[in-house]
Design a protein that fits this description.
Blueprint: H1 2-19, H2 23-32, H3 42-57, H4 59-69, H5 79-94, H6 100-113, H7 120-132, H8 145-152, H9 156-166, H10 168-177, E1 184-188, H11 195-204, E2 209-211, E3 218-221, E4 238-240, H12 243-252, E5 259-262, H13 269-277, E6 283-288, H14 291-304, E7 309-313, E8 328-334, H15 360-372, E9 375-385, H16 394-403, E10 407-409, H17 415-419, E11 428-431, H18 433-436, E12 441-448
Parallel strand pairs: 5-6, 5-8, 6-7, 8-9
Antiparallel strand pairs: 1-3, 1-4, 2-3, 9-12, 10-12, 11-12
Length: 452
């Protein structure tokens, strides 16, 4: 029932704002547990996801609208009541297929079910007022960064960071794109099936898709709903991987027979893609600090037929073991980061204070520094993040080159990505959602020239 989907959405929103968990973790746990005992149809699950992620994406906008129509300050509103208001407001403003009366009435009913009956009249009054003024809710926004913040639900400090780094126009486009749907990108596991055979299966099953023009074995599914029909295909034959990650693997240029280290590898998608590019010949050491993640990578590699992958539990920021020093032809450092490039997939990330990321560049640099010791003379070292923040990207890469004279810049073999930026190929590149149709991503390449 739709009522159950709404209730679960409210419960999930209350939980994420109280615990600070990742949005996908909270929702996946709820769905995997059977919707806390509720019988949810596929339509109910779709509604739950839309409401949940929609409220998270538009949080600042919704709160602005609610404040304009509420006699009570947001900070003084009961957490459950506030999420009910946000849910009702989201349906009124962003879900045209839901009748306004249903959006209001279901919110009022749900308040009573969730033991907030005393606030039902207040909820009804606020939502009715919003419904009456729907066509003019954002008319008073100023044409400045504060207005853009409310319109796109991106905090002012995030917009200022992007404006200083990328300019006003690119910031506006980024802010607008973070509320869009990310591409549904599939990578064919060529160790199990050829790209041509997979394409024939997509066609046979009537799945609309687009073949990537520059990445072999990469397909974008046109419709989100079509993902469910993929379940009919052996899941060892494909996996979900954004094109940015696939570009990172392409850029590494791993060759059959080489030794590769993926130092922050979990959940292992890049290691799998690299294994295919190596034709499952050679060796890939995929490491992570958590043993359960290494176990997961081993199971995944076995299922996918990537026999050259072996895992190791280690902290990549700690001193490089002597046994690994100078042992690898190519080393990939896809380091932990703020995630400001994947806001479309994890909308709550945008609300984290920029100051909470200040310790990351030092950790990232430590990982890059220690990982550089693993590279053979003449070998390749590659650094990447899924964020759009110069402090974690260009500044770390520039510091590394300055402090490691035995490494030189390596021009990234991604001409098509540089071309759409109208820039010459370089050893560093930022990928943007509105330009490259990828997650926000950063890649930097280095070559080890000698051992010090």
């Amino acid at each position: 029932m739709a009522a159950n989907a709404r209730r679960l959405a409210v419960e999930a929103l209350v939980r994420i704002h109280q615990e600070g968990s990742y949005s996908n973790t909270v929702l996946d746990a709820m769905l995997n547990s059977g919707g806390r005992g509720y019988k949810l149809t596929s339509a109910d699950q779709a509604l739950l996801s839309r409401l949940y992620y929609g409220v998270l994406e538009r949080l600042l906008t919704l709160d602005y609208i609610i404040e304009q129509h509420s006699s009570v300050k947001l900070k003084k509103i009961n957490p459950v009541v506030l999420e009910l208001l946000r849910l009702g407001c989201y349906q009124l403003v962003y879900m045209d297929k839901i009748p306004p009366s249903a959006a209001v009435n279901e919110s009022v009913k749900l308040a009573k079910v969730m033991r907030q009956g005393r606030s039902s009249g207040y909820i009804n009054a606020v939502l009715r007022a919003i419904e009456r003024g729907r066509s003019h809710l954002l008319d008073d926004l100023t044409n400045d960064i504060k207005g853009l913040s409310i319109k796109t639900s991106c905090p002012v400090e995030l917009l200022k960071l992007w404006k200083n780094a990328y300019g006003e126009e690119k910031t506006r486009l980024l802010a607008e794109y973070v509320n869009g749907n990310p591409p549904n990108t599939i990578r064919v596991n060529t160790l199990k099936m050829t790209a041509n055979a997979f394409e024939e299966l997509l066609t046979t099953k009537g799945l609309a898709y687009k073949k990537h023009p520059h990445l072999a074995s990469c397909f974008d599914l046109v419709e989100v709903a079509s993902i469910k029909r993929l379940a009919q295909i052996d899941q060892s034959c494909y996996y979900h991987q954004d094109t940015a990650s696939q570009y990172a693997c392409k850029s590494l240029e791993a060759q059959p027979g080489e030794s590769i280290a993926d130092v922050c590898a979990a959940p292992g998608g890049k290691s799998l893609t690299i294994a295919q590019m190596m034709e499952n010949k050679g060796e890939i050491l995929s490491s992570d600090i958590h043993s359960y993640k290494c176990d997961g990578m081993e199971k995944r590699a076995y299922m996918m037929g990537a026999s050259i992958i072996r895992t190791a539990i280690r902290d990549a920021s700690e001193p490089c073991p002597e046994s690994l020093t100078g042992s690898f032809d190519r080393v990939l450092c896809d380091v932990p980061c703020s995630g400001l490039g994947v806001i479309r997939r994890k909308p709550e990330i945008r609300y984290k204070p920029i100051g909470s990321f200040k310790e990351l560049p030092e950790l990232q640099y430590k990982i890059l520094h220690e990982s550089s010791k693993m590279v053979k003379d003449g070998g390749v070292l590659q650094y990447s993040t899924c964020t759009l923040n110069p402090a974690e990207n260009e500044h770390v890469a520039e510091r590394f080159l300055k402090e490691h004279t035995n490494f030189s810049p390596r021009i990234l073999p991604l001409r098509e990505c540089f071309d759409v930026l109208s820039s010459k190929p370089s050893h560093m590149i930022s990928l943007f959602p509105h330009i490259h149709n990828t997650d926000g991503f950063f890649i930097a390449g280095f070559i080890k020239t000698q051992t010090i």
